[in-house]
Amino acid sequence: MILASSLMFIQCTSEPIEGPQGLAGIDGVDGTPGANGVNGADGGNVCLTCHNTDFKVVQYATFENTPKNGSMLRGTTYCASCHSEEGYKHTLSPFGGNGDFRVAYATIPETTRTGIGCTTCHSGGHETAGAAISGTDAALRAKKGPIQFTEQWVSGVADFVDFGGNSNMCVQCHQPRDPYRNQITANPDATVNLITSRPGPHYGTQSILFAGGMYMHEIAGTEVYPAKGSGTHKGSSCIQCHMGKASSDKKSGNHSFKPNLDACKKCHTGAIVNYDINGAQTKIKNLMKELALEIVRVAPKFSVDAEGVLVIPSAQTDRNNLKDVVSKAIWNYRVLYYDHTYGLHNPKYANALVKNSIAAIKLVPTP
Hints:
The protein is mainly α. The chain has helices spanning 2-13, 43-48, 53-63, 80-83, 85-91, 118-121, 129-134, 152-155, 168-171, 206-211, 238-242, 261-264, 280-298, 324-339, 347-362, and strands spanning 147-148, 160-161, 191-192, 303-304, 310-311, 322-323. Helix 13 (280-298) runs antiparallel to helix 14 and helix 13 (280-298) runs parallel beside helix 15 (347-362).
């Protein structure tokens, strides 16, 4: 009996042998179809608003009429950041730069550097499909947010501007880049030696004049300086004025970056035939000539050319022992000169800057 019971126990606890697969059951009844979704935007049509042959023809044709094309190529270390595609890319963090225009561009052989072209500014990739579809995202390499000026690397003060959206791309290069502002002392009785025959910021003063109150010497005077960011054209933007509809001859608008007068007519009324609206440019031009002559009076080694433009002597000894206020006025003059619009970017601020500079130098006796 014990032996029989043992055999029964082993039999009951053994792994069962699996039988053959049964026949498949009948499929169930399909459910009720859902409502159709809303059709999305036609990607082909959206992309082709920019990525089409006709549009690119206008871009290329207008770009041929801008000084920003390949003819701007400069190969030296500092110049390369804005005068070559490779140098510009190296200022941007995705390419290893840190925003400082003085990074070691010497690592880029001058023989391989190329001028400014389409891919210098573009091909940064669209941030989102929605931004691309809206037309606000041009796949720019530089960020659209506030731009930190490179001047901070010299002065130690971090300054930012935000002109909004794609206009901030312009600030990457159109900003002051010069350490010599620090040679001017805070002591009005001190004398100053101008270190270079090109004092003042490089050709990039458009942004600081547009913003107003940045990197200028606001010499006290009867003229009131407008508050920072309150310029007349603050309601506009770099893109609105400089990249409007291309003119019929393709010499202005679009990628020529030369303002089309039609852009001015959006705000200014009356007969607009040039940019000297209400004589504002003529006024600043004449004031700049007056300031240049006053500088020559107190600094006889300086001169003016046939156009009334201040000429700074190349010899260091001819630039020494200048009054502090004279040095400040020279800086202010160069800010307006390098803007090359006779104050158009901020007429009220330019007017106050040049008038107060003139009044201050008039108080300096002739040596």
